[in-house]
Amino acid sequence: MQQQLSAIIVDDEAYARGIIRLMLESHDDITVLSECSNGIEAVETIKQTKPDLVFLDIQMPEVNGFDVIKEVQNYHKAYYIFTTAYDEYALKAFEVNAIDYLLKPFDDNRFEEALRRAKEQIKRKELEALSQKFINILGDIERKEDTTYLNKISIRSGGKIYFIDVANIDWIEADNQYVQIHVAGSKHILRESLTSLERSLNPQFFYRTHRSAIINIKRIKELEPHFKGDYVITLLDGTKVKLSRSRKDRLKGLLNW
Questions:
Q1: How many domains, in total, are found in the chain?
Q2: Distance between CA atoms of 54 and 73, rounded to whole angstroms?
């Protein structure tokens, strides 16, 4: 299947616009969206229609072809084939990354050469964009695969190693260089910082409510407003934990609150 391209024709001479339209009629893969007779009209049309390709006359009254590109460059990146009767503009045309430069009067062969070059460049850019999209997708997949969260936490106590199922944790609080892990009324001490442990817990289920506490959001029973925008969270076991106002918005999203 051919790639469908859109184009507009910009020239202050109706005859010149007609010649280009006639040459494009033999290309089923190109749709002419509009013809513009001056630079001001061209600027508005490019912004509105966002064409793939623009056949652009350089020497036009008030707003010339270079001015058109300058005006639209932050709105839409089209591909340009310049058409002009003046060859002194050729160097400047390529300085603004025009695909080709057609010196009037041009014949069918020269026009087809420019059009072929435009199609190849557009296709190449499309393939580059698609390739980059796939690279980004693969990168996202790899990052997700590399993101593994703890299912169990090991605790050393009395010469033994105990394993706690992370899903059973009610909440965790900071205790200097340690953390206290609360599970079903029991408290377990782990030599690790709260920040370090937080990175190992699934953020969809464990939320840091303030600098000294992380809660299992499945253990939340209720919330109530407190002082100056803070909240108090009551867990299922009756424990009350502060939720600072700076951290409440993301928790609202997790809870659909």
A1: 2
A2: 13
